[in-house]
Every structure is written in structure tokens, then in C-alpha cells.
## 1
Amino acid sequence: MLFNSFIFFIFLAVVWLAYLLLSNRRGRAIFLLAASYFFYAYWDWRFTSLLAISTIIDFTVGTRMERTEDYRKRKRLLLVSCIANLSILGTFKYFNFFLDTAQAALGALGLNIASLHLHILLPVGISFYTLKTLSYTIDVYRRKLKPTHSIVDYALFVAFFPNLVAGPIDRAGNMLPQIASLKTPDRKKIKEGLVLITLGLFKKVLIGDAAARIVNNIFGQPELYRSPEMLAGLILFSIQIYADFSGYSNIARGVAKLFGVELMKNFEQPYLSRSFSEFWRRWHISLSTWIWDYLFNPLISAILRRMGRWKLSSVQQEMRIAYPCAAIVTMLLCGLWHGAGFTFIVWGGLHGLFLSVERLVVYHNKAIPMRKRIHGFSGFSRFLIGWASTQLLVGFAWLFFRAENLGQVWQFLSKFLHWQGSELTGRFIAIVLTFWIMIMILELAEYLNRSELYLLRLHPAATAAVCAAVIIVVFLYLATNKPMPFLYFQF
Amino acid sequence: MKPGNILKGFLAFVITLIILELFLRWSGTSSAAFVIDDDNLGRVLRPNTNIILVNEGFFMGRVNRGGYLGPYYPEEKPSQTVRIALIGDSFVAGLQLFGRYHFRTIMEQSLKDSLSDSVQVLNFGYGGFNLERMFIYYKLSVLQFHPDYVLFFIGTDDFIEGERQLGPNLKVEDGKLTIESSFRNTGAYRITKKLRVLRDTAFYSLLKKAREFYRAGEILKIIFDKVYLLFNPPHNAAEADSASMVDPDRMALGRSILSELANETKTAIIFVVKNRLNDTIRNDIQNAHLTILDPKNDLDDLRTKNINPYYWPATSQSGHWNYFAHKAIGLYLASEMEKLIKADRAQIKPKSQK
């Protein structure tokens, strides 16, 4: 069930009204769990079993970990959780990729083996709920979190439908206490929820989907397009992915608010970032913080521990080696998490490289500050150079993210290198500018108001009117165009 | 609610709609109307209008100042120029791909390469045109461009009663065809003209599309998704034989049009089979001593190469001719037209008539 479909809003209306009618907390939790499983089964009921298996394993691991103080036993239990979750993810998401790669490598060596490629469907949202369940067991293992004793609460934490299929990847520490006291949302929360849903639909449907229709055509048959058209396709994709995913996150957070649950913010004006490190603090925040906590930090600590034996003269020197190693490995894994393909791995590797170069060369191995106030002309120039170079390279990396394969990346790059003009350049510039200006208006409105709920600062009648106008146009668009799935569903 | 609040709400609503209208229009999400209601021709393409359409394919182009698609050629034909006019429905309009891949461009270029004279191919395609509308458009507009050859793209569907549009009609009086323009005096036409400003908005385009979807029964499918399919499973009924759906009145009118076209002396009339053409109609055309060109073999050649001429891989949708089909049709028509033009020049036959 897509958030940008009518059937979802019918489902939401029914579930929400029933939820409000239930007064008992446990009844509400059971009902929301059933609704969440229905929501998931709507795609393919068979995959609910994977969700249930993952839930049962991690709930059991969590409660058993609590019962024992034995460090080794706790570690074994954590291993069980990691192996179980990663095996399911590996089988359904990466099996064919590794198999095909191995087959190609063997083929290059002259060894031809029969194809073992399996026809496996990728369960929607598997990467997201796997990270959610893993964070739970790791936090329990690290004693940062007390495990829940209610299987219903835990199952609802994993399967809560607003953030089940594409995040935000909320931690148990944030969600479980809210699930344990499922409240009736107050008027403020409902208003905030509705505004977030409206903004999300606007971004997803009118910006993301509209851009996607052009992007899909250009990336679908790039051989038919000329250099400026392909460049426009790439820029539109960078707008599409942001509008699509941040729109989805807004709807998810808005829907959760209607049930009194606060989900974490996933985006904070990433396209205003002036460094890569800032970009990753503002882009897909729930994933970047997950990676920071469970991948990058343990990795850099492990590298530094090992480097302690080398007895380098200073921590600065140690960091000069440890940071790029940890950043590149982490980002390569981040790329692989996004998709089983070399294009995603290169995308991750590029970001790892950008982060490392930025840290070591531009900022001379010092921590990179968040956005500072701009003072004077030199400050503005610095901002402009930082912003433009960051956005340019982020945009370039999106080419790898969107391309079907590395061959298509080369097709784009060779068209950029051997520039061929188009009679439609002016039209494409106008389209790209329109989308870009709209995205920038939304980014700046959020930045200047320091809140994504800037619409609530208007007069209540005006807020309602703006939302109504947007909803009318969005629904009209949805009624005449097949809803497009969210980009991140494929991950 | 206080009147002040109502006013604030109303203003916010209107301003938001205006901003959305501009965004929809400039981003190409929903084009403003690219048609106008002409007092003589009925609904036709609006001259000097940019169009962006994303359907099974992706079109970005412009209606030229002459009110047709492709490059503009003035009404007066230069000497030593062969001018070919294409008339047909959405298959000919080709609003699914860039002009450079349209069969018109391929055909024109190919003919320019093979003939020493300059060649101009004009695309008068318009979505929804049937044989009656094509004939009226030919008489009232295309002839003003002095074409040497006019290619009518037809299929069996042109002989099926379709949706009536506000425009001129053909009437058979005493065995003669006359164009009747009483539509101008209807209330519906006057209202349509008055509401032109609203009709020219991107917002109206969305509304119109929604109405078309509703009429086609698509809206319920979109709204209720799998739940709708649960209660209305898609049935794989065998494709109805379009020959049996042919409207007898349309057939009679079609025959009158054919005999009228057969009497044309200044312009050579050629029929091109758009998709399927039933045998009765085919025989009627041949009996009227008019040329038929059928690119079926060339499209079948594509199929033998595992290319479906109606399938668009980028959007995984089926619909109008795709890039491969346009190329095949363009080359086929160029080769056939080259033969006809050379034969006409050699005075072997009077202008392409059998």
C-alpha cells in the first residue's frame, strides 16, 4: 500500500477512527499491530512471515540477554540475532548479486558454471526493519536499553506501519516508551500530523513523481537523448530522490503523529549543506546516525586500538589513517545497503572518498563544524564555494545511484565529455529551474523558520486553506496518474 | 467564523492555487491546454504553443505558428518543392517522442537525401481524429498548404462511432458531401468559448483528464486498487473483432468520403494503414482507385527481432508506435513515396492513382 495512493488514505481513515474509539492501551497496540501486518500483507502476504520470524528471534534474544550476566553468553546471543537477521537480508537481497558476481569472475577465468540465479522477490522494507531489529539487540547487548517484556509492543515497534517500509529507522529507545503508553493524540499533534502529511504529499507527488516521469524516460533509454537533456535528467533525479524520500518521511511522521507517536526527523535541508560531513548529518538522518553508532564508531575505535601498537606520535597522526579507512569502509557498506549492485557500491565509495578528502585536505583533520552564521562578503563567498562544490559532487554521485549499471554511467559520462547540443536545451533549463526553485523555497522556508511545520505559523484559516488547495491538486494528480512507488522501497 | 478569517482563508486558497498552477505549468507536470476552439475547424491545435507530455513516452515540442506539429512551412509552397501532408490521429501526431525521432522527420530526411528536389513533410495529426474529422480538416485547412500528396492514416477504428466533439460535421445531401457548421450556434460551444481562460489552465487539464478517466471507468480502479480487482477481476475476453463493431452509418459516410477523395485532381490521396484495417474497408479504398500503403510487413519485421512496436521499455507501457516503429514507418513511407514521386514525374501514371 503506497502512501501516495487513495487506498492508503481509506485504510488510514478506517484505522485511525477505530484507534480513537479504542480506549484500552493494550487493545490499541494489538489493533495497530494487526493493521500494520495488514498494511504489509497488502503487498505480498507471504513476506509477513519474514517480519514475524525476525520479530520473534530478536524479542527472544532481547529477553534472554536480560536474564544473563555472562558476557560470552550475551555475545553469543547477539551473534544469533546478527546472523539470523543478516542471513534473511543476505538471502533475499544479496544472494543473486554475489552469485552473479562470482559467476562472472569465474567466467573471466575461463570456468563456466551453470547459472544458480534464483528468482527471489525482494521483500519491501527488509533493509529498514532489519536495521531496526539489529539496533534493538545491539542496544540491549550494550545495556543502553532495557528489553521490553511485551511481544506485542516489540512486534509493533518493528512493524509500525508508518515507518515499516522505508523508515525513519527509529530506535527502540525512542519508540518503545511511546508504544508502551499509546495515547490519544491531542489537537496540536493532529494539526501537526495533517500539515506534515500535506507537505509530504506535495513533495512526493507534485515534485518527486512529476520529476520521476521525465527522469525514468531519460534513464530508461539514454541513447535517445542528447547531452543537455541527460544533464537535466541527472539534476532532476537529484531533486526527485530528495522530494520522494523526504516527502515519504514527512508523511510517515505525520501519520505516526495521528496515533500520538513521534518519529525521528529524517531530513534537515540537506541541499543547503556546505560540506559532505554536513550533508550526511542532514540527509537520511535516521540511517546516518545508525551507521555512525553501529558501524563507523565501532570501526574507528577498532582501527585506533590496533594502531595503538604502532606507537605513532600523536592522535592526529592516528586519525589521519583511521578516519579515511573507517569512512570509506562504512560508506561502501552504506552503498551496499542501498542496493545489491556495483553502482551503489561505487556511490558509497565516492561519498567515503569525499568525506575523507574533505576532512584531511580541506579541514586539515579537524572536526567539521555545522552550519555557521555567514559574516561579510568573504563568509558568503566561502559559503557559496562550499555549497556549490558539495552539491556538484553530491549530484555527480547520484549518477551512480540512479544508473542501471556501470555501462550506463559511462554512457552518461561520454555524452557529457562529447557534448552534443539540443534544440530543447532552453525548455529543459526552464523545467529544471522550476523544480529547483520550488525545492529551494521549501528548504529555505524550513531553514528560516527552524521548523518543518512552518505552515502552522500562518493564520489557522490560511493554514487550512493552503493544505486544502494542495490536497485538492495532489488528489487530482493522483486520480489521473498511476501512483509511483517510493524510490527507497526498493532498498 | 469571522468574515475576516473567511477572507484570509479564501485569499490563501487562491494564492496557493495560483502558485501550484504556475508550478504545474512551468515544470511540465500538467501542460496548459494546447488546443483551441476554432469557429470553422472546431477543436484544433493552438498555434505557437509549447507542449510537454509524459505518457507511455516523453514528448517535448511545439505547435508551430501554422497550427500543426513540426517545423513551420508557410502556406505558399516554393517552386521545385514536393510537399507531403500527413493527416491522422494520435499515431500521426506522435506526442510520445521527440520530433527528431518522429517518422515525419525520418521520412523527410530520407526523401531529401534520395530526391534532388526539396521535400517538405507537414504533420497535421491530431489526437482523436477519425476519417470524417480528417476529411473536414483536409478540406478546410490542409489544402491551403498546397500539398502534392496527402497521406491519410486510417484504421478500422475510424469507422466506429466515437465521442462527438464540438466541431463541424459532414452531411450527405443529394449524394454530395457538405460540411455543416451549426456547432457554432450551440450553447455548449458558446459556454466553452466563454470559459476559455479557465480551460487554458494546467489545473483544468488535470480536471479534464480526471473526467476522461472517470468516463473510461479508470477512476475506481485507481481509488480502490487491489480491492477493486478483488470484486472486478480482469477478464481476458478474446479481442473483439473490430469489423463487427463498425458502425453502418460511419461506413456509408466513409464510402462517400472515399469517392469524394477519389475525384481529387490537384492532390494525390494516399491511404496509410495505421494499425488494422478490415477487408471491407480495404476493398472500398481499392475500388475507389486510391493507393494504400501498409507498413505491416516492416512492423512485423520488428516483431521477428523481438521488438514490440507498441511497447515502450522506459515506462514498461504499451500504447502508440515506439521509436523503433517510427523509424521503420518513416523509412518505409520514404521508400514508397520515392517510388510514387518518381513514377508521377515520369508520367507513368497520373498522380499516384491506380
## 2
Amino acid sequence: MCLAVPGKILETKEENGSRLGRVQFGGITRLVQLDFVPEAGVGDYVIVHVGFALSKVNAEEAQRTYEMLEEMGMLEQDSEVRIQDSGPPSSDSPES
Amino acid sequence: MKYLDEYRDARLARALLADLAKRVTRPWVLMEICGGQTHTLMRYGIDELVPSQIELVHGPGCPVCVTALETIDKAIHIASLADVTLVSYGDMLRVPGSHSDLFRVKAAGGDVRIAYSPMEALKVARANPGRRVVFLGIGFETTAPPNAMAVWQAAREGLGNFSMLASHFLVPPAIRLLLESPTNRVQGFIAPGHVCTVMGYRQYDELCREYHVPIVVGGFEPVDLLEAISMLVAQLEEGRAEAENQYVRSVGYEGNRPAQELMERVFEVSDRKWRGIGVIPRSGLRLREEFAAYDAEKVFGVEDTTADEPAECLSAQVLQGLMKPVDCPAFAVRCTPETPLGAPMVSAEGACAAYYQYRRSA
């Protein structure tokens, strides 16, 4: 229910007094309400839930987290622990 | 996909697990609130990969699971009326009511439709002026602003044939209830990342101070959850109890102000009954009096419906982290996703469904 996925805004338009965006999620695109993210524009990534963008992805923070994790990953390459996807794909698509 | 694949990187997950193993010296019980996070933990086997001192118990953050039986019965009653089209998120259709479910209403000829967004229900209402269109608007803080927008937009257009059967839940009062219970075992919480995307985490700051319990806002991918677990364990081992944010790419301290403002304009805080748990004071949202014309409870006069919970479903204990789904005598025997006794076996976020789907046994 609270599932939300990141997608990239390709273009924006006005309809019924709302700002909408055509947003790309992997291979598919969908029209998304942008009412709650006035700061987001074309090229930005937004987190989308039930057809509404709820946040603009903070690219700098994402990058910082990723670099920190990457650094740890480089230090721990010999670890024995394994992680694997053990089941069918969960509902990652915005359809769920 | 960007901002998704890198948080499923097995190498990063291994590094976080190794780090966690070095950090932990004592047993700790942690709870993830959100059912979406429960599913990630089960799907990737994270509950079995973390050091054995760490026990993960699952929280009440599955809106389909906690929606009161009365709400389902009201929806079934309304959907059975000849001039009504009921529009719902898909998960709600199989949830058992007292005597039936929405799927059976649909099979018997009722006009029940599944939508991905509340705005689709508005489209149905505009296209069918001769029918009364009701949206079953359930969810936590994440879903409240989109549902509020549907009501706001209907009012703006004067769409007289649209109404919402609203049943919204708030997370912080549920955490408070768990912490006040004499049976509570939870020592640290992973707060739900998308609820906090809307609300921020100021309220969690208050809970940390009041109950001296650490809370970390977490994302939904395996690397997110491992990092959140690691942050919680670090706090517990050091004796700290702070609200921290792992899901920084989406969550800020104050949350999404435009979403909160619309939510506050359309809804007001109210007491709310949680399925299996009972009434929690000021733990829900209802439509403000100003929007009474769009409130399906009032439009259809179903405000006083009551229902008794079936005794065989032990979901109340599962939803409060007091019991694992596999410890329920009905699990995978009399209760399966095909013939569910309760909502946690139905919902894509239900803990029972997660254990069933990913084949966890006792």
C-alpha cells in the first residue's frame, strides 16, 4: 500500500488545475500528479505512490549514501555471507 | 532502474552484514513497522542473514490488515446497491468481511472496480453521472494526501455523485500503544520511509525522547534495511535513543509540507478502530464536516455499523509483533491466501502472506 517507486520526469503539463508529469519507470511511462512536488521539474527523479509524486529524490544525499556504501563494499570483498533473491518478483511496479 | 538497483547490490549488502556482525554484542529485538519492509526482509532472507542475536518482529503497518471489519462490511453494503460503483485499491477485494467480501459482491453482479490511483475514481464519476461512485479510501499517512486530493478536486468541480469511504490510520499512536504495552519486547524501530516522506520524522523524535527508544527511518530495498538495522544496533550498543534517518534520498525532517497542508484541510484527527487491536485514541483521520457531502459514511447512513471479529484469526498478536505468523495454528492449514481467515494473509504487505509466499516454516 505504501509502496512507492522512483521515476524520472520526462515532461510536464497542466490539467484540471493540477500539474501532471509524464514519468518514466524503467521501460514504462505513466502520467503522475505533481501537486505535492512544486520544486520538481523535467529531468528530476520523483518517488511515486498511487499516481502522486510524494518527494523529489535528493540526488546529493543518494550519491553520498552510495559512495559511503561503495567504500565499505570495497573493504569487505572477501565476506562469506551471501544474499540472494529467494522468491518471485514482489510488486515493484506502480501497478501494485 | 536508477535509485533502485544500487540498493539491491549484493556486495554492499555483504559489507553491511559483515559490519553488523562486528557491531553486535548482545541480543536485540527490532521491529519494522511497515508491511512493505516486512516483504523485503522475507523476500531477500534478511531475517536469516543478520547475526543470530538480532530478532526481527513485524509491525502493524499494513493498512489492508488493520482496516476494521466494520469498514469492510460498510463497503460491501454500499457496493451491493444497484446504483453504486465502488472503486478500490486491489488488495481490499479479497479481505473477508463478516459474511462476504468485495470479490463476491463483484461476482454477484455488483459494480466493483480496481484502481491504482484515487484520481481514477474521479474519472469514473465524471464519465458516469447517473451512478453514485464511491472510493474506498484506506491507508496510512502516505496515502492520505492523494486521497485528500481526490475529495478536494471533487469539491472543486462540484462532482455530486462522488464520495469516499475514508479509513486512514496514523503510525505514531500505534508505536506509542506498542511501547506502553506490558508485553512489549521491541527495543528499536525501523520507521516507515514513505509515511515519513509525507510526515517527516519530528513525531518520531518525540517518541525517542519520551520512551528512550531508538527509531531509524528506513527505505524499502535490502541495502536500505540492512543499513537501518545497522544504525539501530549501533545506537542500542552505545546506549543512545535518537531518531535517525537512513532514507535520506526521500525523507526530510519536516516532510512534505504541501502534502501535509492538503491533508489537514480535508481530514481531521479522530479515534480509529484497528482490526484485531481495537480503538486507539487519535490514531486515524476522518473527513472534516465541511466535506460531509463527499463522506460515504454520511451519504449512505452507515456510520453506526458494528461487527465482531472472528476468534480463529490471531492477527492482533501478529500485528503487534507478539507472535510470528508460523506460530498460528491456522497458518497454511485453514488459512491460506486462497482461503484467508484474516487480512494479513491477503494483503501484499501482510506478514502472514510474506511468510507464506517465501516459505518460512517454524
